[in-house]
Here is the input.
Amino acid sequence: MVAGVKQCSSELASEAIELARALIRAPSMNPGGTEAAVANILATPLVDAGFAVDRHEFADGRTSLVARLVPSAPKGPPLVFAGHIDTVPLGAAGWSFDPFGGDIVDGRLCGRGSSDMKSGMATAVVAAAGAARRGKVGDGIMVVVCAGEETGCEGAAALAEAGLLSRARAIVVTEPTSNDVLIAHKGALWLRLVATGTTAHGSMPHLGQNAINRLIDAVEAVCALRIEGTHPLLGDVTRTLSQFHGGMNVNSVPDHAEATIDLRTVPGVDHASLIAEIRTAVRSVVDGSVQVEPIADLRPLDTLPDHPWVASVRDIAADVTGRGQPGGGVSYFTDASVLATAMGDAPTIVCGPGLAEQAHRTDEYCHVEDVRVSVELLGRILAAHVRETTA
Ligand SMILES: [Zn+2]
Here is the structure.
């Protein structure tokens, strides 16, 4: 029995590794590419295992999937595995290997998206398909495959808007955590500041109104604003001045300038109030000449560590990884920002193969062993779901 289970899980692990390699070989950089090819590769094993798969494009070729395998009269909502299939671009530096080769070297699966998060998407799909093929799904399994996460969870938001998401019993987002269980992450509030002025000859600045100077004053006002809020796992709110452009030529007073600011928030910080405070602070130094508009508005994740489902998953993860799993937090956001709310405030964790510090890096890789561990861990989380929701 035990040998049979082990063999089955090692076959699934091989399947997940091959699937992750195929996903890496289908580039899906964002910005600059599309996710359709990756979505098609993932749809096949889900359809073969009996899932009903809905495709949704929020723009041409920007394909997300919602796969459902739910019994005819479930007593409760399904368990959800979720993740994203876009990657960041390659960056300016050269890679020491083919970023789209999907090669395995010294136990490392190499390529763009290997850690963030094509391995996690592969293990989610293979574990779900494996459970489906055994014919046991309890109250059901859903897999949510999102396009467009890297630029602000556009794919997940579009799925919610299209009404394709339903209530979940619980959600596992398989972003790279080295298979540790995370229960909290920061939210993001991305702002664009647009300054206007009046152009004039550079030798006669008194005739113009300098948009760059106004933008500098506005940005300084945002940076000086005191933002309350701290979290035991996440720390404080941070802000990063991430872009600043303005001016046309050396000898004119500029009449247009733009900046972006990336705020990372913690639970308890209300984004709508924060935007209002920022607008007030900006208006107090530059009147109405600088407009503040949100580009992305994503809530933090803050799951209770002792929620019964979370506690049971922490126990399973501790057993599979051999490490204590108190439930940690990270500063980056995930699709959980959108999915947790859209799926009925379901208890949500982030737990998947790959190294968070490999995300977005040149020469990105994922330990192959992480993929094996993830397949076993997700398989056991599914098995517990089936046990707990089968009458
Ligand atoms: Zn990611």
About this structure: The pocket of zinc ion is lined by residues 84, 116-117, 149, 175 (CB under 6 Å).
